[in-house]
Amino acid sequence: MLWQLAQMLWVGGLWLLHIGVLPALGLIGLAPLLIDEIDGLLSALLVGFAATCVLLQVLVLVKAEGLTSLWRDIRGQLLLMALYACAMFCVVHVWLPQALRWQLFSYLVLGFSGLVLVMQPAPGWSGGAWVMSTCPFSSFSKMEGCHMFVCCSASLGPQRHVFPYFNQHRFSLLR
Fold first, then answer.
1. pTM over 0.85
2. Contacts of 91 (CB under 8 A, 6+ apart)
């Protein structure tokens, strides 16, 4: 429940500000310079709040799935990307305040990683999430550096379906 609450607050807040509040301020007739000032202040505060919520979600994911889930699980990868986007926004906001396009880019990376994260199940719930792990057959000459994508389901257990990819790698899909 803590996962969904934190996710709702930061993802919903980011998109509500960008799609709802700022256009509404323009429609009611506020001066564009005032809207830009409100946007700069609220965006920075909201990205800081999002970083706090993302850190909370990282803690929930690590507690539920283990530390390796941060780089093997799609949820962990999205959370790390969101943290990177928060850091990039803050660095650009402090050191290059005139680089508004970089700020917008990092804000949108944060928002879209949040939207993809919303589509993933919460840790500990059935349904599973995408996990990337090293292929046990990586010693074979044709499949060096192979990775397999794994979808773990609590009720069915892992099942493998292998298909070739560029004649050099093989991916397994476990559902």
1. no
2. none
